[in-house]
Design goal:
183 residues, alpha+beta, Chitinase A, domain 3, 7-stranded antiparallel sheet, 4 helices, 7 strands, 22% strand
């Protein structure tokens, strides 16, 4: 009986000790993140080179660059209006998505007329930013690196991983938010 009590006392005392932290089997050095960043920089540089080649071949049109890293040229321009969509405006637009080789991914008919509340709904980054550059009645062709398109996930349908996109966007109507300035 004394042996049992002694055993229980030893167990009770040892159970009160703080647990010893286990050391990790493998220490992460952060090299994966660095490698991923380098891979993305190389991908962006290659896509920007492709965009420069497209622009050089299309010498009849003047391309402009945007602050976010896309390029565009006007197909139809509206010289009368100066109003571009602002946050909370309702914009109706159509667009077509193509590869840089001009293979159609989604047609305007497949995508249909889009009604979009500016900066409040989910569009891929390049499209979301491009809409804010165009005025009512304007049509433009945009060239997006994959980082401004669907990126490394694709759209899980027709657009694969890291596919740069060409989009032809037409603004049909802009309905300004009542709280913002009017066109």
């Amino acid at each position: 009986m004394k042996k049992r009590i002694l055993l229980l006392a030893i167990l009770a005392v040892s159970a009160c000790q703080e647990p010893v932290a286990r050391k990790p089997v493998k220490v992460n050095s952060g090299s994966f993140i660095k490698e991923s960043a380098e891979r993305n920089k190389r991908l962006l540089a290659a896509e920007e080179q492709m965009i420069r080649e497209i622009i050089n071949k299309d010498s009849l049109k003047e391309y402009k660059t945007t602050a976010d890293g896309s390029w565009y040229t006007y197909e139809l321009s509206n010289e009368v209006s100066s109003y571009t969509p602002q946050t909370n405006d309702i914009v109706q637009f159509t667009y077509t998505l193509l590869t840089f080789e001009n293979d159609t991914i989604y047609t305007e008919d497949e995508l249909g007329l889009q009604t979009y509340k500016v900066d409040k709904q989910g569009l891929f980054p390049g499209l979301r930013n491009s809409i804010k550059l165009l005025k009512e009645g304007e049509k433009a062709t945009f060239l997006f690196p994959s980082s401004l398109g669907y990126g490394y996930l694709g759209d899980k349908n027709k657009i694969g991983v890291n596919v740069p996109l060409k989009a032809v966007i037409t603004i049909i109507d802009i309905e300004p938010d009542e709280k913002s300035s009017t066109p």
